[in-house]
C-alpha cells in the first residue's frame, strides 16, 4: 500500500515538474513569436519609408487606365517593370520615365520599335510636358499632372 502511495506521489511530482517546465516553454514560445512578428513589422515599416516618392504625375492609357509615376519608372512587358504593358510590340524594358530636378524626362531603353513623343521618335532623354502623347508599340499614353494617391502599390488601376 505504501509503495502505491509512493508511485502516485512520484507521478504527481513528475506531472507537476512537467507542468512547470511546459509553462515556461509556452511563455518562451509566445515571446519568440512576438519577437519575430515585431521584427517583420519593423522590416515592412523600413521598406515603406524607403519607397520611392510619388511625382504627382500620371500616365493615362487610351482605355483610361492610370499609372502613378514615381521618381524612376520603367515601362515594358517584363514582370519587373514598374509599369507592365501587355503588347507584343513593346520591349521587355522599353522606356524609362525619371525625375530630373522637378521635371520628368522620358528615355528610350534601346527598344526594338522605339518610343514616340507627340509623334516624333526620341533618341535621347526628353522633358515631358502636360498633355504630351507618348506611344510605345501600339499603346498611346497621355502625360498628366495627377493627384497623389498614396504610396505602396505601384499600379493604380481605374
Helix/strand layout:
Elements: H1 2-49, E1 54-61, E2 66-70, E3 72-76, E4 83-84, E5 95-100, E6 103-108, E7 115-117, E8 120-121, E9 126-127, E10 133-136, E11 139-145
Parallel strand pairs: 3-4
Antiparallel strand pairs: 1-2, 1-11, 3-5, 5-6, 6-9, 7-8, 7-10, 10-11
How would you describe what is shown here?
Residues 73-122 form the FHA domain. It holds the Pfam family FHA. The chain crosses the membrane at residues 24-43. With 158 residues, the chain is α+β, with helices and mostly antiparallel strands. It has two domains: 1-49; 57-145, Tumour Suppressor Smad4 (Sandwich), CATH 2.60.200.20. It has one helix spanning 2-49, and strands at residues 54-61, 66-70, 72-76, 83-84, 95-100, 103-108, 115-117, 120-121, 126-127, 133-136, 139-145. The strands form two sheets. The chain has a six-stranded antiparallel β-sheet with strand order 2-1-11-10-7-8, with no helix packed on it. A five-stranded mixed β-sheet has the order 4-3-5-6-9, with no helix packed on it. A hairpin with a 2-residue loop joins β10 and β11 (139-145). The longest helix is centred in the N-terminal third of the chain and has 48 residues, at 2-49. The radius of gyration is 30 Å and the shape is rod-shaped. It starts with a helix and ends in a 13-residue tail after the last strand. The model is unreliable at 148-158 (pLDDT under 50).
